Amino acid sequence: MLAGVRVIELSHVMAAPTCGMHLADMGADVIKIERLPSGEDLRRSAPFVDDESAPYAMMNRNKRNVALNLRDPAGQAALRRLIEGADVFLENYRKGAMDHYGVGWEAMHTACPRLIYCSVSGFGSTGPYAEQGGFDLVAQGMSGLMSITGEGAGRPPVKVGAPVTDITAGTLAAMGILGALYARERTGQGQFVDTSLLEAGIMHTYWQSAIYLNSGEIPQAMGSAHPLMAPYQAFETADGWINLGSANQGLWEKLTKLIGAPELADEPKFATSNDRVANLGDLVAALTPHFKKETTQTWLAKLEEAGIPAGPVYDMAQMAADPQTQARGMIRDIENSSGSTVRVLGHPVKYSGAETSIRRRAPRLGEHTVEVLTEAGYSETEIADMIDSGAVGIATKD
Q1: CATH no. of 6-203+324-393
Q2: 232-236+241-312 shares the fold of 6-203+324-393
Q3: Tens-place pLDDT, residues 297-342
Q4: Cα gap 41→254, rounded to integer Å
């Protein structure tokens, strides 16, 4: 779908690489720029397949790679030339870093009015925290996510297990870039696309923010439960856990009959969803003994037959092995540069008129430096001189 769109990605770790990965999966020519001498830190993150990082392979498939020394004027000039020839420039460094390299938004917009310039940062490019660096943990805390995650009020704050603000910020950046590309078709003009880990975290609080902003009540952590409906949470079974989504009155009444306790439907404190939420502790205490009588698989079969939404609580191995995960192509095998198999996640959106195959493994540092600089108009002699001077780097591993 994005064939013909060129993206220059100057990034590290997760937020912007997630964005670039989505765009590359959709067919864009994403050229990842890494700084010499050693590239980004994710290359040194375990586990390794041969000597190559599996996390790096996950985030950087389908991309080409150019290694530049951005302390060298020739390296900075090469970066600028590459951006000038692109549709999109994507970066996730602290505010001011791109100006230092001579490729800040104002300079590049003046030189390339059609360029879409996307910045992903901890707090965004405006506001009192714009100069601060940001990390997922910090953003989860400041967005309110950690206050609503965990076992309950009075317990220590808990972060979401995945780096959810990094991943979401990268996904929002991809969405913003696609919108800007569409707008450019109408106006001929590029624009600055600006999102942050903080905003990505805040976005996940839609339910809880609706409660606080309109009632003044401050939501608390509720374990796996929901602030507005019940029973809608995990319940222990004889051999594990299930998630139960009995989220409306009809499903609640079906559930009481299924577990052999229809009298619960007549309890005043469980009469409506609001009543059940208000008396959640009593509700869980009433339901748990019933669920602990049977195994997870037995309950899933019964709930499916009754038309009550439910599912198992998986670990990562169970998730990867599930037939639905497999059927949706969410686990893919690719080769690394040594020919060994690396397992990665597939693209999470399916399209009726386009493929999102993994066309390239994650690149070695500087693997495509000569190729890309040649496309940008550098001569063989110029490239050789830049390699000799250390302004650019090339892959040394066969």
Answers
A1: 3.40.50.10540
A2: no
A3: 999 999 999 999 999 999 999 999 999 999 999 999 988 888 889 9
A4: 53
Measured between alpha carbons, how far is 88 from 288 in angstroms, rounded to an integer? 53
Is-catalytic flag, 282? no
**167-198: per-residue pLDDT in tens?**
999 999 999 999 999 999 999 999 999 999 99
Nearest-10 crossing angle of helices 249-258, 296-306: 130
Q: Are 382 and 388 in contact (CB under 8 A)?
A: no
Contact predicate 383/68, CB 8 Å: no
Task: Give the fold, CATH level 3, of 232-236+241-312.
Answer: formyl-coa transferase, domain 3 (3.30.1540)
Domains of the chain, by residue range, sit at: 6-203+324-393, 232-236+241-312
Q: What is the H or E stretch that residue 74 is in? A: helix 73-84
**Residue 320 in contact with residue 30, Cβ under 8 Å?**
no
Active-site residue, from 29, 87, 166, 194: 166
Q: Let me know: does 366 contact 395? Beta carbons within 8 Å.
A: yes
Q: CA gyration radius for the chain?
A: 25
Query: Cα(first)–Cα(last) distance of the chain, in Å?
Result: 32
Write out the DSSP string of 261-299.
-GGGGG-GGGSSHHHHHHTHHHHHHHHHHHHTTS-HHHH
